[in-house]
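Morning. Coffee machine broken again, so started the prediction first thing and wrote up yesterday's gels while waiting. Chain of 208 residues, entered below exactly as on the submission form.
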Amino acid sequence: MQFCNETNRFTKPSLIQLDRTFYLDEIAMADTTVTAQVKTPLRPISKVGLDKLAETAKADPTVVKALKVKTVCEGQFRNLTYVRDLPAHVIDEPPGLLGEDTAPNPSEAVLACLGSCLSVGIHANATMRGITLTKLELELEGDINITGVWGIGDLSDKRLGFTDIRVKVDLEGDASREELDDLVAHSNVWSPVANTLRLPVNMDVSLK
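Came back before lunch.
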């Protein structure tokens, strides 16, 4: 008797084939999946507090407040500046200016103060306008000639201090591009630090 071995029409798939099929299904699902990115709002400023602050300012717009700090030289170019009851704010110089590079130098601190002041104004005005911000970052750079080296270098006639400062604001929130542009421009106009840099300031430096 002869037996005929008939080949099965249905072949059991191999593990490799199963893995490949599963992988292709995963790709197909990934292609049709839409990922929603939820941006977290910045920690909010009290709207009630801002309203009270604004009303107080409008009640007597001629008030001038004297701010006070104390700077103590620790040695070399490292200085500690004390403000209110806060920990000392450190200022140093980079190695290229013979410092220990432990903190920003005075000119860098000026840029930092400007950036912080603009940021405060932008966030405050956004709150007053009902705009929720999810991102607020500022990049600053300034051009400065330091060849005078505090009066011991080249003493020829030149502009001392920053000649140009550029600020780029990376701002995101539930407002249009035009509204965000206006927010930045308005904050620049009313920034105390920006105006200190733009306008002449009466300064008296004398021996105690």
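The chain is about 35% helix and 20% strand. Going to sketch it on the whiteboard this afternoon.
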